[in-house]
């Protein structure tokens, strides 16, 4: 009952906090890492709506507020998705023994997992995503190493060397750089907005 009563207020509170964090990172000019992006909060709101724990009117108000905020946001360079099964999530909730999580049912986690999977597939069309199996914890150092390796693979700059006409063994570097400017807000199934085509430049 409490979850349904306060779901809208809580989601708006979290949305406002994520937006503030997002803008602080952008205006700080140093870059940063968020534990959860502002885009992901909409997944929770949708799951609450679908479960009957948020009124449709409140959900539409939330979505409108999110899109208004999205007009002033820069998209993240990368999203790292820690993929955990609903069953493992439930085990971790039990181990944490937090009173605020004690009433969360497995059914809710299963629905949230499906909604998250759809979100990741959708957002990956405009923002690079690294999906990590997180059913087993890894050290911070190992995570940093894996993310760095995967990020390099996803880079849009590729280097190719070969001998040029200046003589054998004298390398000439060809750099193929691609990039795009996708929208700040996540795509939706009903959206007809085209995604910017990558541009390619070749420099010798």
From TrEMBL:
Residues 170-179 have a biased composition (Polar residues). Residues 158-204 are annotated as: Disordered. Residues 2-153 form the Deoxynucleoside kinase domain. One of its GO terms (molecular function) is deoxynucleoside kinase activity. Gene3D superfamilies: P-loop containing nucleotide triphosphate hydrolases. It comes from the Eukaryota. One of its GO terms (cellular component) is mitochondrion. This is Deoxynucleoside kinase domain-containing protein.
């Amino acid at each position: 009952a409490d979850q349904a009563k306060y779901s809208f207020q809580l989601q708006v509170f979290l949305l406002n906090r994520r937006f503030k964090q997002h803008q602080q990172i952008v205006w700080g000019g140093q870059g940063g890492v968020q534990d959860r992006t502002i885009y992901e909060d909409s997944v929770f709101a949708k799951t609450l709506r679908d479960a009957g724990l948020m009124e449709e009117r409140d959900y539409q108000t939330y979505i409108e507020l999110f899109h208004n905020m999205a007009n002033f946001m820069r998209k993240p360079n990368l999203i790292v998705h820690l993929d955990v099964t609903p069953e493992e999530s439930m085990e971790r909730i039990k181990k944490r023994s937090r009173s605020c999580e004690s009433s969360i049912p497995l059914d809710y986690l299963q629905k949230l997992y499906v909604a998250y999977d759809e979100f990741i597939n959708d957002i990956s069309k405009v923002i690079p995503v690294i999906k990590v199996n997180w059913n087993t914890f890894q050290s911070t150092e190992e995570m940093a190493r894996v993310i760095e390796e995967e990020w390099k693979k996803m880079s849009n700059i590729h280097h190719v060397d070969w001998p040029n006409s200046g003589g054998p063994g004298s390398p000439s570097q060809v750099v193929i750089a691609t990039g795009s400017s996708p929208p700040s807000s996540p795509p939706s199934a009903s959206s007809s907005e085209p995604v910017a085509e990558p541009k390619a430049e070749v420099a010798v």
